[in-house]
């Protein structure tokens, strides 16, 4: 029970009153921002990154954990009451949850989402704690070629396996990879694509790109589509509490959702949203009240919401143990780590165990805080939904630029923010996915480094890349993940894939 | 690709434009890679090689886009309210230009007001003061309490008394 003692150690780190305060601030801010319409967890984390700048790594990362869980919780509130899911993982929640809210059962819908998120978060975080040491042990034996193959798989699954079009996904990915070239080459120190502009030598900041594409791109997009009508906030009527019947119908759905969601998130591949779809399908098949599905079935909220949180905690497995972000949110969390010069991966567990386990423990604490904080405060969060759009987006723009200004107040950096923001807008308009750009920017240099290292070890022999069973298998999966969906689409079965599309943030 | 009939359809302009952009980007990368010294070392792969592969991949995607522009049914994007987008972008441009001289609060206040304008609050005489006050509060909270370094102008000096 090595994990347990580590976890206990982590809990004693996280129980420090100052750190508890950070976690509380994180949870509150995360919920408050996450609840705003159109803002999902990725955007929440990106917007609130600057809040954590001034502190030491431990405090910041713990605040971060709180923001992450808070943002997810807030997102589900929005989708239930407003039917505008801030993230694709909440689409399913919106499906049944919004129907429940319309039928005057918004309170129980919010409650089952909150408690389901709590239970799923609790189980999944514990699973993360127990799984992580094993993955780390395996990962320590990975060679550069294995990492390279793993990253290829992540590239493909994030960009082209799901969604309408492999072409658009790959274009997004390669735009990210092209942007990743900018700056000084890590192995030889030569400047690439910097065109003599000194600010470009450092490369393109991940946070700048992420904030620009997610926050600014979204703001531009909403401004451009303003004519398409306003959304109605549904007031929470009646009791917030769940009846005995609600409990009886919810608890199994929570557990099933967790079991479905966690492994999907934990796989080192993209598409974490699939868990919510699978959970919804499972609940629909197993329910004793099939007539309620589509009209506000509580299982349809409880299961997917649990699956959503479980797979979000699951994505932390590849993020922490392999340094591999497999969702937009995870990509931005990775950027947060890098801000403190920390590189998540097996080595971080060895060199800085206190920090990693403190973080995992504070995820547990943040989860408990959320439940205590949110059930009584639902009314307050709901009021945030009624902020008029002009003020809301004006505020979002201020906070989006605040991070960049705080990190590097140069006109070059801000101009990049503007350009990438417009790029994100145009990509949204024409249906190009955003997450692959960010993932390409983050993973591009890492993949290049591993590739060149692998080739160095083998003295330039290309076949070394398929030389270990693991790398060969992973590369084979990458090819399959690229080819199979393309064949499916060509045969007119693409609809299922676009339903599974990971719509960003 | 059933029902393909070239005489009935104009090519998808957006996909064609994307093809052009990708080709340009790929070209720039290849041009830049050509001037790099090849220090392949033991791997035989230098900094220019990886850039070159990405450049070629972009050219390949450009060709794919170009073909798709003629063969796939164009998806009409929803009509965009360009003026609103320009207001928001203009707000950001104003902030970039004014940040150094006027300080965080005034520059960001303009961003706030222009964004609100883009979202339908037209009365700049109201939104600019509101924006400046809002940005000043943000400044005081973030620079004062959370130790973030933000560029100060006359207004900030007035409040922090430096």
What does this molecule look like?
The complex is a heterodimer of chains A (505) and B (162). Chain A has 20 helices and 2 strands. Chain A is 72% helix and 1% strand. Chain A has helices at 2-14, 17-34, 41-48, 57-82, 91-102, 106-140, 144-159, 166-181, 206-224, 244-266, 274-286, 299-322, 328-339, 346-351, 353-384, 389-407, 411-429, 435-457, 469-490, 494-499, and strands at 183-184, 191-192. In chain A, strand 1 (183-184) and strand 2 (191-192) form a beta hairpin. Chain A is mainly α and 505 residues long. Chain B folds into 2 domains: 13-71; 82-160, no CATH class. Chain B starts with 12 loop residues before the first helix and ends with a helix. The model of chain B is unreliable at 1-7 (pLDDT under 50). Chains A and B meet through helix 8, helix 9, helix 16, helix 17 and helix 18 of A and helix 1, helix 2, helix 3 and helix 4 of B.
- Rounded average pLDDT of chain A: 82
Per DSSP, the total helix count of chain A is: 20
Oligomer: heterodimer
The chain-level mean pLDDT of chain B equals 84
What's the SSE pattern of chain A?
HHHHHHHHEEHHHHHHHHHHHH
Topology as H/E string of chain B?
Answer: HHHHH
Number of domains of chain B: 2
The tally of strands of chain A reads 2
How many domains of chain A?
A: 1
Shape of chain B: flat
CA distance, first residue to last residue of chain A: 36 Å
Strand content of chain A: under 5%
Question: How do the strands line up in the largest sheet of chain A?
Answer: 1-2
């Amino acid at each position: 029970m090595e994990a347990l003692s580590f976890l206990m150690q982590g809990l004693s780190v996280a129980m420090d009153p100052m750190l508890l305060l950070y976690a509380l601030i994180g949870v509150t801010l995360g919920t408050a921002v996450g609840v705003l319409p159109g803002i999902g967890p990725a955007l929440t984390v990106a917007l609130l990154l600057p809040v954590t700048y001034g502190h030491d790594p431990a405090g910041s990362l713990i605040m971060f954990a709180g923001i992450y869980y808070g943002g997810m919780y807030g997102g589900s509130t929005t989708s239930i009451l407003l039917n505008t899911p801030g993230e694709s993982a909440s689409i399913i929640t919106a499906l049944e949850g919004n129907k429940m809210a319309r039928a005057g059962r918004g309170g129980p819908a919010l409650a089952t989402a909150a408690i389901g998120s709590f239970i799923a978060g609790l189980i999944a975080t514990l699973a993360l704690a127990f799984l992580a040491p094993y993955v780390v042990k395996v990962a320590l034996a990975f060679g550069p070629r294995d990492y390279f193959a793993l990253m290829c798989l992540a590239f493909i699954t994030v960009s082209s396996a799901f969604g309408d079009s492999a072409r658009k996904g790959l274009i997004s990915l390669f735009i990210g990879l092209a942007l990743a070239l900018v700056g000084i080459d890590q192995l030889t120190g030569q400047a690439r694509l910097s065109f003599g502009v000194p600010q470009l030598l450092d490369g393109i900041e991940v946070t700048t790109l992420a904030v620009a594409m997610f926050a600014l791109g979204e703001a531009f997009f909403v401004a451009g589509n303003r004519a398409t009508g306003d959304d109605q906030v549904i007031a929470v009527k009646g009791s917030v509490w769940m009846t005995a019947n609600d409990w009886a119908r919810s608890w199994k759905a929570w557990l099933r959702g967790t079991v479905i969601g966690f492994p999907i998130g934990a796989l080192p591949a993209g598409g974490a949203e699939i868990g919510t779809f699978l959970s919804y399908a499972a609940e629909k098949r197993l329910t004793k009240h099939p007539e309620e599905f589509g009209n506000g079935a509580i299982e349809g909220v409880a299961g997917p919401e649990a699956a959503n949180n479980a797979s979000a905690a699951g994505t932390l497995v590849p993020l922490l143990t392999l340094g591999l972000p497999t969702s937009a949110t995870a990509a931005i969390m990775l950027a947060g780590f890098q801000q403190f010069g920390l590189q998540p991966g097996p080595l971080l567990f060895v060199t800085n165990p206190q920090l990693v386990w403190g973080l995992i423990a504070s995820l547990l604490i943040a989860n408990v805080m959320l439940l205590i904080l949110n059930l009584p405060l639902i009314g307050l969060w709901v009021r945030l939904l009624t902020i008029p759009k002009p003020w809301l987006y004006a505020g979002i723009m201020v906070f989006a630029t605040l991070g960049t200004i705080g990190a590097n107040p140069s006109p070059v950096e801000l101009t990049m923010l503007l350009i990438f923001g417009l790029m994100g807008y145009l990509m949204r308009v024409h249906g190009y996915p955003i997450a692959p750009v960010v993932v390409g920017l983050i993973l591009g240099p890492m993949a290049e480094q591993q590739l060149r290292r692998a080739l160095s070890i083998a003295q330039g022999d290309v076949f070394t890349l398929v030389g270990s069973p693991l790398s060969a298998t992973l590369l084979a999966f990458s090819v399959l993940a690229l080819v199979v969906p393309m064949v499916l689409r060509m045969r007119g079965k693409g609809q299922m894939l676009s339903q599974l599309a990971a719509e960003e943030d | 690709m059933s029902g393909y009939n070239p005489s009935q359809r104009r090519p998808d302009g957006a996909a064609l434009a994307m093809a052009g952009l990708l080709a340009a980007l790929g070209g720039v990368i290849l041009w830049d890679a050509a001037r790099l010294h090849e220090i392949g070392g033991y791997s035989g792969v230098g900094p220019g090689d990886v850039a070159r592969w990405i450049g070629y991949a972009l050219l390949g995607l450009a060709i794919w886009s170009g073909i798709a522009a003629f063969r796939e049914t164009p998806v009409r994007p929803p009509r965009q309210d360009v003026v609103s987008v320009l207001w928001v972008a203009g707000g950001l441009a104003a902030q970039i230009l004014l940040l150094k001289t006027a300080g965080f609060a005034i520059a960001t206040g303009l961003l706030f007001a222009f964004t609100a304008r883009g979202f339908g609050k037209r009365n700049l005489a109201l939104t600019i003061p509101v924006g400046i006050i809002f940005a000043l509060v943000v400044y005081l909270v973030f620079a004062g309490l959370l130790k973030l370094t933000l560029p100060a102008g006359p207004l900030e000096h007035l409040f922090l008394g430096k």
